[in-house]
Amino acid sequence: MMLVFCFQTLKAEESDASGRLLVSKQILNKYIVQDMDLIVKYTLYNIGNNAATKIVISDTSFNSDTFEHAGGQLKATIDRIPPGANVSHTVVLRPVRIGPYNFTAAKITYETGDESSKVQEAVSSEPGEGYIVAFRDYDKKFSPHLLDWGAFAMMTLPSLAIPFLLWWSSKSKYETLSSKHKKNQKD
Amino acid sequence: MIELNFTDFVVRAQEDDTDDDVDVEGEETGVTDEGGEEEEAVEKPTGSPDADTIILFTKPAVAPGTNLELPAGDLVEFLVGFRNKGPEDFVLETLDASFRYPMDFNFYIQNFSTLAYERPVKPGQEATLSYSFIPAEAFAGRPFGLSINLRYRDLNGRQFYEGVYNETVNIVEIDEGLDGETFFLYVLLGACVVLLLVVGQQFLYSVGKKRVGGGGGGTTHKRHVETGTANHNDVDYEWLPKETLQSLSE
């Protein structure tokens, strides 16, 4: 779980001293690919005048037959977010099926921090509909083609090596000839 | 009959009033104002007393007490929070944003797409909507009225259209230190300078050579008289390999 605290002061429009959270849910991937990591980031902004406490993020919007859990927690608890601060939480999932998928909101409950200590329910923003691409299609576009380039290098090798060897053999032959000649002259 | 005439008169009187206003404002804005009047007649933003909306710009981050400054040609993201304080469900329908003329918010300059959400919010619940847009790069350095409006309805079918944000914002130009275009311009200029230097050097070299050759050329050329192979002394052996020369001299 990754927590990032970053202070950000905002003008609070509410007069009563209670915490208020805005929750954004974002999918950080540009391409959602089968069997590759899908990173979901939840950012909680406290824009109220008081600290929000006992925050529980629970996201049940990921079907278990479409997504495999790879890292992070889909049900996370954060003790406290001070006013004007924000906290982000990341979850990594792995899609196992291809096709369109509607990414919907996560549910959040928290205590607003005022005397009533009531539990406030909230829903995050929705990332919307996305399409899970098959790994083969993704690979076609973005793979580095290392094997192909290796094969290409192997195939071009004879056309370079054969003339080089021919030149090398003739060169060494004449070098030995000239050195013999020199020796003969010196003698 | 009398009533009809009366209402007719009222309408005309109103028109006259607005026309007067337009004249006061000036001739240039007159046309735009008339266009705006029609827009105003269509919608008037009103919110439900049971709803509580709030806006937060997440990108760029806003410092407190300062005017909102949006970078032109860059992504702007904001969140709209909605709290249902009433006893009935609300359904959040759409969110739209637009740039208006700062002197007259009825005149549209850039409209951003209206996003449909259709999200129900139960009593006591909160919901967050996210929206992002990119201000046109041509708008850099000018203030605009940014208007963000949320449309929602309650279970009785009553529609509300609430202005979440209605303020003047500055569109600023982001000055990148070195963008690709200027970088390659400098590279091209550098290449031109190098090319000129090389050409100049070649020119000077050839001119110098000609002058030296021309000075002594007359006399040396005269000395060269073709004698065939009769004279063995001025044969140039320099081009021959040393081994051959040695074997020749043996």
TrEMBL record, chain A:
Gene Ontology cellular-component terms listed: endoplasmic reticulum membrane
Broad class of the protein's primary localization: endoplasmic reticulum
TM spans (from-to): 146-168
RNA-binding recorded as keyword: no
Record localization: Endoplasmic reticulum membrane
Keywords: Endoplasmic reticulum, Glycoprotein, Membrane, Signal, Transmembrane, Transmembrane helix
Bilayer disposition of the protein: Single-pass type I membrane protein
Record's keyword annotation contains Transmembrane: yes
SUBUNIT field: Heterotetramer of TRAP-alpha, TRAP-beta, TRAP-delta and TRAP-gamma.
Family: Belongs to the TRAP-beta family.
Its job: TRAP proteins are part of a complex whose function is to bind calcium to the ER membrane and thereby regulate the retention of ER resident proteins.
Designated name of the protein: Translocon-associated protein subunit beta
TrEMBL record, chain B:
InterPro entries the record matches: TRAP_alpha (IPR005595)
Start-end of Acidic residues biased regions: 16-41
Transmembrane segments annotated in the record for this chain: 183-205
Stretches the record annotates as Disordered: 15-50
Family per record: Belongs to the TRAP-alpha family.
Statement: the UniProt record of this protein carries the keyword Cytoplasm: no
Function text: TRAP proteins are part of a complex whose function is to bind calcium to the ER membrane and thereby regulate the retention of ER resident proteins. May be involved in the recycling of the translocation apparatus after completion of the translocation process or may function as a membrane-bound chaperone facilitating folding of translocated proteins.
Pfam families: TRAP_alpha
Organism for this UniProt entry: Ranatra chinensis
GO cellular component: endoplasmic reticulum membrane
Topology class, membrane: Single-pass type I membrane protein
Species lineage: Eukaryota, Metazoa, Ecdysozoa, Arthropoda, Hexapoda
Compartments where located: Endoplasmic reticulum membrane
Name of this protein: Translocon-associated protein subunit alpha
Self-association state and partner proteins as the record states: Heterotetramer of TRAP-alpha, TRAP-beta, TRAP-delta and TRAP-gamma. Interacts with palmitoylated calnexin (CALX), the interaction is required for efficient folding of glycosylated proteins.
Keywords: Endoplasmic reticulum, Membrane, Signal, Transmembrane, Transmembrane helix
